[in-house]
Amino acid sequence: MSTRKPDRARLSGVERKTYDALYRHPAPNDLAWGDVIAVLKRLAEVREDRKGRFQVTRRGVQTTLRAPLLRLPLTMDELHEVKTYLDRSGEGVSRPVVAEDTRLLVALDSGGARIYRLEFDGAVPVSLEPFESNNYASYQRTRLGPDERAQPERLGFAKDLARALRGADEFLLIASGTDASTTLERLRSDLRRADAELYLRLLGPLVSPGGRTSEARLLETAREFYARRG
């Protein structure tokens, strides 16, 4: 994109290699968090807390990155998360880019939230597709455990999720896992605090037994919900 060359020009030789590696295809599997954080510190304001979280602010756009250890390599999901942030912060805060009559499904588990667009035939959901809105990834990562000490992290996650869902006509929440009910209630509370207007578009929410729910099961659950809704 057009902002990449000016960004690259601000970096040192080593930092440029790291920056270029972020956009390499195929994606690298040995890019260390420490090198990526060094690039972000040159391009943005970065603040680290005591739990290994990095609050990054660039051109008015904020995100929270969680680096377990700086020497560890980024996973493919983490690489995508960093690239998405660099891209969406390149032009500053953007307006929602969600089409009219967009209905979303958000699947929660212990690792975060998967976001899907529901496609309908009349009143019946017929398919779902991973959905990236407002330049946010279709998979928002966090640790959604029952630990009360995670409150600041949970609220930061809820704010990012609210931004990703902004502009949708409605969204359905489905949570899975052993602490699904607790996770769901806390996220509902956090979403209400993060964006009261968006919260009014929440449908459900629903609890799905077991661990991470398959896409086929998510679609089946959505169909059952909309059938009961009439």
Overall helicity: 25-40%
User: CATH topology of the largest domain, anyone?
Assistant: Nucleotidyltransferase, domain 5
CATH architecture designation of the largest domain: 2-Layer Sandwich
The helix/strand order is: HHHEEEHEEEEHEHHEH
Q: Quickly count the domains.
A: 2
Q: What Rg, in angstroms, do the CA atoms define?
A: 18 Å
Q: Provide the structure class.
A: alpha+beta
Regions with little confidence, pLDDT below 50 for 5+ residues:
93-97, 143-152
Number of helices: 8
Shape descriptor:
elongated
Top CATH class of the largest domain: Alpha Beta
> What is the number of beta strands?
9
Summarize the SSE layout with pairings.
Blueprint lengths: L3 H6 L3 H10 L10 H11 L1 E4 L4 E6 L2 E6 L9 H13 L14 E7 L2 E10 L2 E7 L8 E3 L9 H15 L4 E7 L3 H15 L1 H4 L2 E7 L6 H15 L1
Parallel strand pairs: 4-8, 8-9
Antiparallel strand pairs: 1-2, 2-3, 4-5, 5-6, 5-7
